[in-house]
Structure formats: C-alpha cells, structure tokens
Automatic annotation (TrEMBL):
InterPro entries: 2Fe-2S-bd, 2Fe-2S-bd_dom_sf, 2Fe-2S_ferredoxin-like_sf, 2Fe-2S_ferredoxin-type, 2Fe2S_fd_BS, Ald_Oxase/xanthine_DH-like, Beta-grasp_dom_sf, CO_DH_flav_C. Gene3D superfamilies: 3.10.20.30, 3.30.465.10, [2Fe-2S]-binding domain, CO dehydrogenase flavoprotein, C-terminal domain, Uridine Diphospho-n-acetylenolpyruvylglucosamine Reductase, domain 2. This is Xanthine dehydrogenase small subunit. Pfam families: CO_deh_flav_C, FAD_binding_5, Fer2, Fer2_2. It comes from Pseudomonas fluorescens. Residues 192-365 form the FAD-binding PCMH-type domain.
Amino acid sequence: MIQFLLNQELRSEHALDPNLTVLNYLREHVGKSGTKEGCASGDCGACTVVVGELHCNDQGVEQIRYRSLNSCLTFVSSLHGKQLISVEDLKHQGQLHSVQQAMVECHGSQCGFCTPGFVMSLFALQKNSDAPDSQKAHEALAGNLCRCTGYRPILAAAEQACCNKPQDQFDSREARTIAQLKAIAPTQTGELNSGDKRCLVPLTVADLADLYDAYPQARLLAGGTDLALEVTQFHRTLPVMIYVGNIEEMKRIESFDDRLEIGAATALSDCYTALHHEYPDFGDLLHRFASLQIRNQGTLGGNIGNASPIGDSPPLLIALGAQIVLCKGQTRRTLALEDYFIDYRVTARQDSEFIEKIIVPKGHSLFRAYKVSKRLDDDISAVCAAFNLKLDNGVISDARVAFGGMAATPKRARHCETVLIGATWNAATVEKACAALAEDFTPLSDFRASKEYRLLSAQNLLRKYFIELQTPHIETRVTAYV
C-alpha cells in the first residue's frame, strides 16, 4: 500500500496499476480534469501539478517544500508520503487563489488549455519566492508553452502574484499538513500491485539491494522523466518497477575537502547549489537542463543510468574525472564514469547492480562547459562540451575533453587530449587540437543538427574555451546557438 494526501484528503492505494501516471489518476480516478494532457512527454507543461513534501530549511526548521512537476511523467507510486496539489485545489471558499486572480487581471489566458499548467507553475513560484524576480519567473515558466498570449501577460501575472503575496489556505493549514505528512511518513517498503504489475517502494539502500537481487528484471524508477516515456509514448508495459525516490541515503549531498558525493536519487534541482558553488559552469548548464518541472523530478543518477548519448551531465562529469559507486547486494565497486558507457544505451552495470552515488572531484579551476541547442530553455543538446585543463607555466600538463551528442556514448576526445598534453597553450596548439577532433568523432546527422555542424561546433567550442581563458572577463559560457 502507498499513502499520500490529495490536497487535504488522505488516499490509501494498493491495487492501482503501477504504470498509471498522476495525470491519468487525477483525470480518470478522482474526477479532477483541470490538469491537461498536451504532449505526454514533459515538454508543454499543460499537465503541471505541485507536490509538497516535508523538508528542513537551512535553519533546521521543518516545513513543506512545494515543487512543480509534469504529472504526465510521474507514476502514482512516487507520491508515497507526499501531498499532491492540482489546479482544482487552489480556489478556496468561492474565491480564486491569488495566482489565478493575477492571470485573470493580467489577461494571461486566451484559449485556456495551457492555463492550469501555468497557474500551477505560478503557484510553486509564489511559494518559493519572497519578492518578484524576473529571472526566477522565466525559469519557473520555461517548461510551460502557450500558443495564444505571447507570454508577456503571463509574466505580468507572475510579478503580480509574487508581489505582496497574501496568505492562502495552504499557509494557514501548514501545521496541520505537516502533522498529516508525518503521520503517513513511510516506515516500511510500500507497494502498488495490480496483479500482473507491481511497483515496490523501499526506504533504504539495503532494502533496494535485496529487492533488486530478488527482481533483477525490475526497472529502477527515480524521477521517471525518461522511463515514463516508455509508457506514455511507446505504450509499453512495465511489469515490475522499484521506486528509489524515498531512499534518503541516495538523496544526500556531502561535501569533503577534495570531493562532492551526490546520491544517485538526488533531484537535479537539488544538485544546483553544490555544483554551482564548486563549478559555476556546471550550475549554469543545469539551469538549461530541460525545464524546472523536469529538474525537480529527474535525478543525477538517472541522467547517467539511462546512458543517453545526449545527456547533459555525463560529459561534464567525465571531464571532471567523476566516479560512480555501484552497489549489488552487499558489494560495492567504484568505477570511473567514462568506463561506465560501453555503447549506445549499453553500460558496464551488472544484473541487479545500481548506481548508489556519484563522486565529483573538487579543485579544477579551468573547467568550462558549453551547451549548443536550438532553444535557450527546455531543449536537448545538439552538442554538449566540457573542457578541463591543467596549466604549468603556460604548458598543458593534463587535459580532459569530453562531448555529448558526438558519438553513441558521452565520450572523451582522446586524440585531441594527446595533442594538448605537453604542448604550449596557444592558438596554434588549439588549431591542432581542433583538427584532432575529426579523428575522435564521426557524428551523425539528425533533426537536431547535421554531422558537419556538430563537428564544426565542437571545434569552435574549443576555440571559445581558449579565448575565454585568455580573456576571463568575457561571460559567454553555456551558450545556445540558433
């Protein structure tokens, strides 16, 4: 059984189909049809809902953290121990919520199909903002698409909603909601079981290891932003899943003198502060990783584990010399991330083995990262590049250069590195290294970019890296090219 709050209503579910998304649960099982399906792939934001969960702030005070996410990519099992809020829950005692009223007064809705998703993103923005902030507003709404308004009135609604925001029913009921969430906090492995399909929800790494050993055919579910597409886009059935999002051990970020250790189930939005503090380029790129809804849900371990050649984090982690800790039963092994990827969607992971955490070295001051995509926000990379050099008196003593989108796996540019190591860091060396990239990669052409464009972009990004290190005042990193 799993338990969660549907606004303030306690829901206990056991026999639901584990392949059921939160979107379809709302529309088909509880009659809340305000949440819309636009794309069923996490691109349009029409299905946005907000999930609340217990969280201790920086002062150690327990409160509810509200986050927007795409309900079309969220399986119901991930709600275990949390609160689900949909657009119907905002209106209170016959009065529109302040974010809804702002949309009305600023004329932020025309056809109305996308409006519930915008309202929920605005609601989460309001809960997480103390004052109007245009940058945060753009970030919060980047995952919501509208064909009618041109966005200006919606951004005006965001400013109004976050300016002198009034107390709402969620604020007045916070203490009661916290007590309810504490009462349903999971204490043992939960389960959804429809007879022919099941999803197990362990609470510890040890329980996960035992379950995965017992069900080696199970699919591991973390954020689900990639896995759920098998159900929503390809109409496949996932007979057995194990949801890892309730394992606190795998959601920790620990900082040591020489490294960061990031649990594999840590949401990408939770990784931002630690990675940005150590590597600003990494943090900047995370801001361009899909949408806020996806970052609130998708995990760093999942972005590695799905072995996509266009995942944004692996090239950066490879350039930094990151390692992963793999767990199987009571056995753990540490593997260089670059050795994890073998071929397209093929990895070195053994049966019943899972990524427990990612180890990111500290202290690489010349690390830079770049993303080339057709859109600035909410888009997949055509090319993702990461460069990490060590210079001794103008001579390159070590080089790690990695790319995504250039091969069947995220991959180091070994020929390029060979040219760089031991050479003087100057324009002539860079041109030789650019030529060597043609030996490292034979990229494919697809709808994102041609092979010629990809190779030229990769070479130009290396040139860009050289220029930036020569003139560090230039702020042109993590750039989109149209």
